[in-house]
Structure formats: C-alpha cells, structure tokens
Amino acid sequence: MKKISAAIFILSFFNVDAQHVPSFEDQISLHSVGGVQLAPDGKTVAFTVQTTDWNDNRYDTEIWLARGNEKPFQLTNNPKNSSTGPLFSPDGKWISFLSDRGNKTQIYAMRVEGGEPRAMTKEEEGVSFYEWHPDGKRFVFVKSEKEDKNKKDREKRYGGFEADDKEFTLSHLWQIEFNPDLPDPSEMPCYETVDSLKIKAGCIDWPKAKRLTEGKFTVTGFSVSPDGNKIGFTHQPDPLINSSIKSDISVVEIATKKITPIVVNQSSDSFEDWSPDSKEILYTTNLNDTLSNFYLNSKLYAINLETKTSRQLAKNLDEDLGGFVWKPTGIFSAIWDKTNRPLYRIDAATGEYSSIKNLPEQVFGLSFTKDGNAFAFTGRNGNQLTEVYLSSLNGQPKQITDMTNQIRDWKIAQSEVISWKSKDGAMIEGVLHKPMNYDPTKKYPLLVMIHGGPTGIDTPTPVPGNVYPVLQWLDKGCLVLRPNYRGSAGYGEGFRSLNVKNLGVGDMWDVMSGIDYLDKKGMIDKNKMGCMGWSQGGYISAFLTTNTDMFKAISVGAGISNWVTYYVSTDIHPFTRQYLKATPWSDEAIYKKTSPMTNINKAKTPTLIQHGEFDKRVPISNAYELLQGLRDKNVPAELIVYKGFGHGISKPKERLAANWHNWQWFNKYIWGEKVEIPVGEKK
Q: What pTM was estimated for this model as a whole?
C-alpha cells in the first residue's frame, strides 16, 4: 500500500447495494488463518484456522491442508481442544502437530494421504514445542520439569503460599523416536490369564523420551542443525518474564549431550536459525543494553562456531529485528515498515538487504522449502482479511484461501492512511476509517481508538475493533481515527524513543494534533468526540480523561492510572524504569508528570473502565484507583470487571459483552441514546 495522504482504498469486489452491517456475533465468529507450513515438495501447504465455539465459550484452532490445485480441507478435529503447530516430516509423508486430547499436550502424527492421528509422546508434563529431527526418525521437543515433589506435602501441612519469583519449573530439551509402524500401545491388550491370574505379557512398550539438556536454566527456543548433529537453543535462568533480558545462546551436541555457550551478552540474546551448512548461527541481540532494550532496536549477527567470530548483518535496517530463517537463497524475515510489512531478504555474505516484490502489503508467518526457492506465508492487503499464499522467490504469489469472502456482503471500514505534524514537530501517521457512504460535505462525530504496546501498530483493515464495535459506529455515521503515536512499531528506533520520559504527554500531543488536522480539513464535529484503547491505549485514554475535556466519553481498557502504583505491582517492572528512566524513589516528578491520577481534579469526561480480574501486566488496582478518583470528583464512571481474565479478553462471550459495554457507553454520551444490553440467548 502506498503511503499517500488522503488515498482512499475502494473495495471494488463488494456489491455495495447488497451490503449489511454485521452483528457483534458475526464479527467475533470470523474465521482466521495462521500457523502456515510448506511441505518439502513445495506443493502442499498446512495451516491453522481459528473458529469460534459459542457453546463452550472458546476459540478452536484446527489444521487444514491444501494440496496442489485442490480446495483446502480440514485435516484435524479435536472436539474439546485445539490442534496447532503443524510440521511436515523431512520426507513429506507425515504431518505432525500438537494437541491436548485429554492427556495434556502431546505430539501427534498422521499420514499426509489421510488416516487417524496417533500420539507420538505420552509425557506427563505435556509438550511445549517441538521439531522433527532432519533424519525424520525422531522428534526433539521441550517440556517442563516435574513439579517439586515436596510441594504437595508442604501444602498438606502449611496450606497454600508462594515466595515471589521463586516458585517455577524449568523446561529442557528431550528427544523421542518416531516409529510409525509401532502399534498403538493403548489399543493392544497385553494381559493373558494363567490359572485365573492376569499376567502381563506381550505388551508393547511406549518409546521413552531421552533427555538432552539439564541444569539451572530454562529453554525458550531451539532448532536442530541441518546436519542433525547439534541443537542451538535460547535459554534463561528461569521462566519468569523479566528473566528474558538475561537470555543467552548455547549449542548441545546430540550424541554427547555436551553443552557449549555460544553467545553470552549482558542483555538478551535470541537464537534465530542455523546456516544451511551448519557452521554458523544467526541470532538477534541487545548486546549489553539492559536499560533501553524495550524500545531500541535489537541487532542481527551471525557467529561462526569454529572461529567464534561474529559479523553484524543488515546494519541499516532501522527496526526491531527478529523472526529470521536462513536458506541457501538468503536470510528472510517480515519486518514492519510504517503500515506495511514487507518480506526482506538479507545477503548472508554482505549483510545487504532488499525487499521481495509482488507480495501483499503485509506479510506474517513464513515457511520455506529446504532450498529456499519456494515459500508459503500468511499476509494481506489493507482491504483483506489475512490469507494463506504460496509463492516462488521471483514469481507471483498464489492465494490459497479466501477468508475475505466472509465479509463480502458486509458494510466494512474504508481505510485511509493520513499523516500530520505533532506539537513538537514529529510526523505522525494514523489510519482513518470512513463509512462506505462517506459524504465529504458533512462533519462527522469522531472516535479515536488507540492501540496498545506502546510498540504496537495500527494498519488499514476492513474489520477493525476487537472489543470496540467500529463497523457499527461507522454505519451509524462517524469517523474513526487510529493514531500510530510516538513509540509505535514500524517507524524506526528514533520514533520509538520519542515517548521516553514523555509518556502520556507526547502521546496526547499526537492524538490532539491529529484531531486538529481533521478539524482544519472540515471533516469532524468536535462537539461529538470519544476516545478508547486497551493496555497502553487504555493508559493514553486515561491520561486524556484527566488532562482534557475535549471528549464527550472515554473508555479505558486495562489502562495504567498511576505509574507509582503500577511500578510496584506489574509483572514487568523494567518497562517503567526504561521508559521513565527512574524509579518512583529516584525521580518522583517524572512519575507524577506522566500519571493520569496527577490531574484527577481536572477530570470531567464520563469514563468507562474495563479490566480483567487477574491482570498481572496492568493490575486491576489501576482500575479501582481511577474509578475512585473520578467518583470523588462526581464524574460519571463505571467499572466492568471481566471475571477470570488477565490482560486480554480471550473468550468470545466476554468479548461480546465488552463490545456491548462500549456500544452502550458511547451511544449514550455521543449520540444521546439509551441502549439496553440484551439478556438471554440471541434469537
């Protein structure tokens, strides 16, 4: 998509006359694709499809297969849980996946031609993630250690308690044989009766997994070398979220189990891939930066295992790097470039990079053939839902799925990328959504929807929203602005650094200057404006609640209200220290400057607060603090607590409820309408 201000993208394949506004349930029920994998022959594609199970109130993920020119078909069906992580065997005859079918998550395998899947593991702790060994005769996988055997005895005597940051289990590497000809032990009787006694005989032993690593660390990622002799893996001292900054890279020799540290920087190091000849390792790193790695770019290196010499690649690629695969044809990754996400190819010898042409505007998951000449991926243009594609490096991609057909008859958002200058001169981009019957002679109410992160990004899409009923508001007659405020991904390291020691303040400049831009163009009615966002977007919305009265209504989703209380209760303390460059005890002023609660006495805007009951990222105390402050100032405020949820709403029924809560709130204060939320099943 070309970044031209005021360039509107018309969806010509829609029949405008037959369009209707989808229900909230329709949107939540949309199928979506992911998890793409390409078979060794480059012709068969496996991918996952997520659907909505309203009866069990969950999202189900199953594996689909597309062979040649055949229509894709569903391969797996787990009635109570999902099937994920599809991988083809090196000879292309088998497809494996992860699934919990009542015995924790295990590796399953089935023939590509068809048949019933069989469990390949029977691990008491379950399998976290896995790979085929290049010889096709075994799997390598990661599983957690057994729980401390003393824990149950301790709880029996002393009840339940937990020492903070000390209660965890580590995860390590294991391997297990793949023996497809072995009968399923669970289906083979192995008892015979002798003199009325049942004697165990003729039993088939389940293959036993063999341990590959052990020690006081936890494995967070790995890959087997192409020659099959070694495993490169990322590890950190423990599985706690803040320990990722201490991650390092080691190699274990499969035959001897000898572990050799390879990359040990002070900050985080992450294994990316092996070189095709198994002589080098590709990795991303923050080197020794433990003070600003939340917002500064990671760097890409290759290290020679024999000489231990490293070289930096793609030095001038100004964005946070990751997700690389190394093939004989180059090193590949999809990386944000403003609201586009091109696929880059890096020359392994020179470190120079270029983008692959003829692909959709945004590329996501990748899977290559061994020679690197063909690949499958998921991607989309700004007027599409995400689709699965198959392509050669120099050819035109072939679209495998047609997920966008689900919205063919919907009234959807018209997307336009606009840009404006913020208060301090920074150039800000945003996505402006217009209704399909947009009239340039009218002034519209404006709703501002702010993404989380802060290193998230908003892009053109026909169906924005999640917990916000954007399509219904657009049809009601409004504009929706989604600003990529300072700190957003896709605009380089310097842009992501602009809200350091300026959280909230600079973000507010970006939002309000965007509103001024639209107002000067005569597009909006500034007397009818609302604002909403989740996580960091919820924080910015809370900051706007207490620092301006320009909005008629605001919705704060899982937002920070006070950086001091947030700092002592969140599970990611380094985030606050890095962005504010202080603790509350070393620089109280910066915490006050950037906290919504500092100016609570100025608050006037009716505010809906939405929060998960067990949110660790932004603890719910932030919601109660903002709520009480608003109530003390007699500002209309309401808190909705979503029971059993953490930082996000991950089930369809509660997501439906959140849409209704926002619809009710904004319709009341923007349009003056009373909305009764329907009770009972939809008829």
A: 0.93
